[in-house]
Design a protein that fits this description.
This protein is 72% helix and 0% strand. It contains 3 helices and no strands. The two termini are 45 Å apart.
Length: 104
């Protein structure tokens, strides 16, 4: 009987893998961008025309919900792309440090 016991590693205690997370966030950003374009096209079709457009521009009436939704989805797409870019930069920086340390 050994004095050391090996316990299974719980998935939440594993180390964070920035490279994998960056690729996942890039996929999320791409999906959110595509969804933003589709919702934006639908919102443009449903946008008010004529005097109704003027009343929305003058803030006399509310924007249709689809137009507010399109802006929200676009914001999420931009945030996901920003996070993905930062994670890619972080992994590049880590690899750069490893390469610089290994050549000395």
């Amino acid at each position: 009987m050994s004095s050391t016991t090996e316990q299974p590693v719980h998935p939440s205690t594993r180390t964070l893998q920035p490279k994998r997370l960056a690729k996942t966030m890039a996929a999320v950003a791409g999906f959110a961008s595509a969804l933003s374009v589709i919702v934006g096209m639908v919102a443009a079709r449903m946008a008010p025309h004529g005097f109704a457009r003027l009343s929305v521009a003058m803030h006399l009436s509310k924007q249709p919900f689809i137009m507010q939704l399109a802006a929200g989805i676009a914001g999420i797409a931009v945030a996901a792309a920003t996070i993905s870019g930062l994670l890619h930069f972080y992994t590049w920086w880590q690899e750069r440090d490893i390469d610089v340390g290994g050549t000395e």
